[in-house]
Amino acid sequence: MMSPKSDDESRVVGAERVLVVLHELAQRPDGAGLDELHRAVGGSKPTIHRALGALRRIGFASQDERGRYMLGDEFLRLAFAHHEQRPEQVRIRPVLEMLTERFGETAHYAVLAGREIVYRAKVDPSSGAVKLTSEIGGRNPAHATGVGKLLLSFDLPTDQALRDWVRAGGLPRRTTNTITTCDAFVDELARIRAQGYAVDDQENEDGVACVAVPVWLTSPSRPSGAVSVSAVAYRTPLHTLVDAVDEIRSIIEGVG
After folding, report:
1. Domain 7-78 class in CATH
2. Domain 86-252 class, CATH top level
3. Model's pTM, two decimal places?
4. Three-state secondary structure string covering the chain
5. 108-141 tens-digit pLDDT
């Protein structure tokens, strides 16, 4: 027979359930009913209802006239305030705005997180019928993106380290242009180290190309992340971005 949970254990389980419900709400911008959340999260309906009640009391969730729950204004206020106050975000955004204005394409700032990259900042062009689907906080595989390959070239400085990294997780194909063999990937990162920038030639998403350069916000020897100008390929061909690498670098050097 299992022993009953202590008060501390019960509180931990309850807190975890609240966070799970909060996470699920974040995936549903149009909101969700109690039944939908119950199917998605599991557990009992009373438990889900209590979690929603706790979130509503502190403004992290709200309920509309149809009874559907969604993220509350207080949660959004705190999330955006935290994001805007990040030192790297504050410092890099003017640069992204300048790059977007110059090229009429999307500019990103991304960091390496394991085998993926995470977008920390993004600026879209103010006009243009086609915009990219990337989002702040979104992730993509490092091996298939310009920013990811660039940062891996610093993180894995030797061929052996790179081969071990590939062996551990492979190089899953994203498009017909994705580099999927170890030898080709080793050659690609050697080329990136030599030229000081990386490209994504429709390797992560068909029709989208980019050029990426390092950003040195926190250390003179290791980049804090990378900035990319990502373009719809038919609108701004990759060679146009490559030809402008020096200009992109000079704009980024203005980060202060």
Report:
1. mainly alpha
2. alpha beta
3. 0.70
4. CCCCCCHHHHHHHHHHHHHHHHHHHHCCCCCECHHHHHHHHCCCHHHHHHHHHHHHHCCCEEECCCCCEEECHHHHHHHHHHHHHCHHHHHHHHHHHHHHHHHCCEEEEEEEECCEEEEEEEECCCCCCCCCCCCCCCEEEHHHCHHHHHHHHHHCCCHHHHHHHHHHHCCCCCCCCCCCCHHHHHHHHHHHHHHCCEEEECCCCCCEEEEEEEECCCCCCCCCEEEEEEEECCCCCHHHHHHCHHHHHHHHCCCC
5. 999 999 999 999 999 999 876 567 778 888 999 9
